[in-house]
Amino acid sequence: QKEVEQNSGPLSVPEGAIASLNCTYSDRGSQSFFWYRQYSGKSPELIMFIYSNGDKEDGRFTAQLNKASQYVSLLIRDSQPSDSATYLCASSSGGSYIPTFGRGTSLIVHP
Amino acid sequence: KAGVTQTPRYLIKTRGQQVTLSCSPISGHRSVSWYQQTPGQGLQFLFEYFSETQRNKGNFPGRFSGRQFSNSRSEMNVSTLELGDSALYLCASSGTSGSREQFFGPGTRLTVL
């Protein structure tokens, strides 16, 4: 059974701080990893994907992948209240390419 | 490029009825996946269609079915609705290159009374 685990939170950070969201996965065959942001009542929006060990940066977002530890993280620098949402982590393997989703971490950025 | 579209956005049905949801993928995307999202279970994979063929299937009963047309548009059908089928139904499309990341539509909110 492929599993992606996330702390449900909520993770509360002050505006301007760095928010760190973490995710572990069970399938060692996983090759691609995704972070989605989902606002309440809306659909998930893809914000980052990563498939190589190390860091990948895009604006205020940095995704980090450690395949040896089966660990993925998302850092949000200079957090804003508009970043308050649920963040879903997902992984997929080269077989079906169907991602397995975690249950999501709720992030609250307070002014 | 237009995103994934889903219709209708909201539906209210009663137990025992059936419902059909529609999804149009991003232009050029041939893979369409369907998910059910509930507060209790999170995002659950229903099935994936590619070139009019069901390529992958999740663990849902046979009341849940789907199809894909030659223009890659997809429909999902749920027969004999149950109260527990109340959920947000999401469609996602993906291309055939790279990490094949999925892009979600706005979803259809189904309420079964």
The chain-level mean pLDDT of chain A equals: 95
Portion of residues in helices of chain B? under 10%
Number of helices of chain B: 0
Task: Give the helix/strand class of chain B.
Answer: mainly beta
The Cα radius of gyration of chain B reads 13 Å
The chain pair with the largest interface is: A-B, 22 and 20 residues
**Arithmetic mean pLDDT of chain B:** 95
**Which segments of chain A are poorly predicted (pLDDT under 50) over 5 or more consecutive residues?**
none
Distance between the termini of chain B: 37 Å
The run of helices and strands of chain B is: EEEEEEEEEEE
Description:
The complex is a heterodimer of chains A (about 110) and B (about 110). Chain A is mostly beta strands and about 110 residues long. Helix content of chain A is about 0%, strand content about 55%. In chain A, strands 2, 4, 5, 9, 10 and 11 form a 6-stranded mixed β-sheet that branches. In chain A, strands 1-3-8-7-6 form a 5-stranded antiparallel β-sheet, with no helix packed on it. The model of chain B has no long low-confidence stretch (mean pLDDT about 95). Chain B is about 0% helix and about 55% strand. In chain B, the strands form 2 sheets. In chain B, strands 2, 4, 5, 6, 9, 10 and 11 form a 7-stranded mixed β-sheet that branches. A 4-stranded antiparallel β-sheet of chain B has the order 1-3-8-7, with no helix packed on it. Chain B contains no helices and 11 strands. Chain B has strands at about 5, 10-15, 20-25, 30-40, 40-50, 55, 65-70, 75-80, 85-95, 105, 110. With about 110 residues, chain B is mostly beta strands. Classes of the chains: A mainly beta (about 110), B mainly beta (about 110). The interface of A and B includes residues 42, 45, 46 and 99 of A.
